Structure formats: C-alpha cells, structure tokens
C-alpha cells in the first residue's frame, strides 16, 4: 500500500476496479483545511482520462510494474505491434495504451510498463523526444518572423504539429513527445 505522498507521474494504481496511470498530479496545501492531491488518471484498459482528488495521507493501492524495452514494428489499423529488444517476443497493443501514437515511427524503441502480477502490458512510454521529418508544410513568408508565428506541418508519421515559419519540407525536427510540440530543428 502506498499513500498520497508516493504519487508521482507514471505511477500505476488500482482505483475503482481498474488500473490507472497517473499522468498529472499537484500537491495542494491550502491556508485553511487539510492538504490534498489533485490528479489526472488515465485508464490503461480503456484510455479514459478522469480527474480525482485524494486527501492527504489517503491509502492507495499501487500496482507493481516492471519496464522493458520494445521496438515498434508496425500498425495494422487495429493494433500496434512491438518486439522485445532482448528476447524478440512480440506483443500487440491498442491505441488507448499509447501516450502519443501519432509520433510513433517504425523502429522506434519505447518503454513498455508490464504488470508483474499477470505479465500483461499496461502502457507504452515514449522517449522524451523524437526526431521526425517534415513531409508537408506551407512555405514561410520572408519578413514575417517578428513574432512567435507558427504554421501547421505534417511529419512522416502523419501527425500534425505547429512549427516556426522557417521550417520547410524535408527538414528534420525534434518533437517533445509529452506535449507533441516542436523543440528544435536538427542540422545534418
């Protein structure tokens, strides 16, 4: 058993007959009254996100998980297929188990959280950032860079993100997987 002081991002807990992963949390100590922890929880089975507030010291049932490295192989429309990088076993997961499936490129190595009780994969954690190539974007207008102007761009995985005006088709960019936002252009 864990308490609210153990809550951190990525923690898997058993809550209302399901397993949830903590995606956001905030410890709040108001001037009056007891402290509490405000959380956003994502169900690892359905992908549904709920918000919940735990009072300070509340007991929560954490789920023991282990992490393993898997390589993304392909998406067949319904399932995402992964291969363990150590023993080459394959697993398949639904889109709801992935944090940001739009940024997942074939060959990408990700971390899979596996429930130690029944060896079932719970969720996939992307690396902090990925490098993807721009496949389509409108050309930037010269002299229109006085502000933080951005434009939509499509990357090689099909995801659309906002990029600065100086980014062109064929450029490789680093993308923050947590916020799905542009970080920097990669020089070759």
UniProtKB/TrEMBL annotation:
CDD domains noted in UniProt: S1_EF-P_repeat_1, S1_EF-P_repeat_2
Residues annotated as domain Elongation factor P C-terminal: 130-185
A Pfam family per the record: EFP
Single GO MF descriptor: translation elongation factor activity
Compartment(s) of residence: Cytoplasm
SMART domains linked to this entry: EFP, Elong-fact-P_C
Gene3D superfamilies: 2.30.30.30, Nucleic acid-binding proteins
One of the record's GO cellular component terms: cytosol
One BP term from GO: peptide biosynthetic process
Domain Translation elongation factor P/YeiP central: start-end pairs: 67-122
InterPro entries in UniProt: Elong-fact-P_C, NA-bd_OB-fold, Rib_uL2_dom2, Transl_elong_fac_P/YeiP, Transl_elong_KOW-like, Transl_elong_P/YeiP_cen, Transl_elong_P/YeiP_CS, Transl_elongation_fac_P
Broad class of where this protein is predominantly found: cytoplasm
UniProt keyword terms in alphabetical order: Cytoplasm, Elongation factor, Protein biosynthesis
Pathway noted in the entry: Protein biosynthesis; polypeptide chain elongation
HAMAP family xrefs: EF_P (MF_00141)
Job description of the protein: Involved in peptide bond synthesis. Stimulates efficient translation and peptide-bond synthesis on native or reconstituted 70S ribosomes in vitro. Probably functions indirectly by altering the affinity of the ribosome for aminoacyl-tRNA, thus increasing their reactivity as acceptors for peptidyl transferase.
Family: Belongs to the elongation factor P family.
Record-given protein name: Elongation factor P
Organism (species): Mesonia hippocampi
Species lineage: Bacteria, Pseudomonadati, Bacteroidota, Flavobacteriia, Flavobacteriales
